[in-house]
Amino acid sequence: MALRVPYIPDDVIERDAEALLGEFAHARGIEVRAPIPIEDIVEKHLKLHVEFDDLHQRLGVPRSGIGLEPDIFGAIWLESGQIVIDECLDPEDRPEREGRYRFTLAHEGGGHWRLHRPLVRPTRDQGSLLIDAVRPTVVCRSSQAKERVE
Amino acid sequence: MKAGREKFGAFIRREREVKEIGLREMAKKIGVSPTYLSKVERDEFPPPAEDKVRKIAGILGLDADELLALAGRVASDLTDIIRERPREMADFLRSARGLTAEDMARLARQAQKAKEK
User: Fold this and answer.
1) Are A8 and A76 in contact (CB under 8 A)?
2) A93 contacts in B (CB within 8 Å)?
3) ipTM, 2 dp
4) Quick check: B34 and A49 CB within 8 A?
5) Mean pLDDT, 10 residues at a time, chain B of 117 residues
């Protein structure tokens, strides 16, 4: 079932991002400076489970990116708080993809989790055993990137 | 350490998250890639080599021998000890089997004293 999301204006997104950074800084008693500690925010503050995997294989989706490179970089299960990053973005194996990895983690955790989780009925207590049995709520594919609409 | 029937990967993942250690942070400390650690934590890959299991135990503050047992391994120094005197050590271990933890601790203290004489 597709998740229908309302349009969220840029200023609302920016305010939420600032609020998240403020919450994190307050909780940790630190001043947040660049580079933003996105892994700590997602894993330790938002308490989301992060994994790496071959997302095309896991989701049973054939590769369709340029040169059949992976074009699914991240997915999130909003019901359980699980984020899976495609292993092609492993920042230790592929240091040149550090930026894309950080962006994807922020996109899933800072974006979808913060902005779209309220749209999903919470069932987090069901635990992680069911995670692999259900499809992710959001699959982020580079081939489906949309043009900005003003 | 209470792993119960939990598998190695699921257990270390839970312990890591309880101790607020990030996946990449943990992988770096062990000396593996985050993707590899992810697969171990999902029990898709078998537990890593003994030295890495020992590192994991150290990072998570767990008993290395218990974690090795959960990984389905016996510490290499123990297999060396048995190989040195296979008959006596086998007899000793078989005799000690079934003793309570307290009895074994007492026996270990007596063995230590006997060596110091």
Assistant:
1) no
2) 33, 35
3) 0.81
4) no
5) 80 96 97 98 96 97 96 91 92 93 93 88
**H or E stretch including A112?**
none
Q: Do B34 and A90 touch (CB under 8 A)?
A: yes
What tokens were used for B95?
Answer: 């005799």
Reported as a single tens digit per residue, the pLDDT across A15-38 is 999 999 999 999 999 999 999 999
Chain B, 30 to 89: residues with Cβ < 8 Å from chain A are 33-35, 38-39, 41-42
CB-CB neighbors (< 8 A) of A91 in chain B: 24, 34
The helix or strand, by DSSP H or E, that contains position A58, with its residue range, turns out to be helix A55-59
Distance CA A103, CA A100 (A): 5
Residue corresponding to tokens 């123990």? B78
Q: Give which of A76, A88, A64, A79 is closest to A142, Cα–Cα.
A: A64
Quickly tell me which residue has 């920016």 as its tokens.
A14
Which pLDDT score, from 0 to 100, does residue B1 have? 66
SS3 A83: strand
Residues of B in contact with A50 (CB under 8 A): 22-23
Distance, CA of B3 to CA of A57 (rounded, Å):
30
The whole-number pLDDT of residue A146 equals 54
DSSP class of residue A15 equals H
* Distances, alpha carbon B16 to alpha carbons A40, A82, B22, B30, B41, in Å: 13, 16, 7, 12, 10
**pLDDT value of residue B62:** 97
Task: State the pTM of this model.
Answer: 0.82
Chain A CA closest to residue B19: A44
Would you call B22 and A92 a contact, using CB atoms and an 8 Å cutoff? no
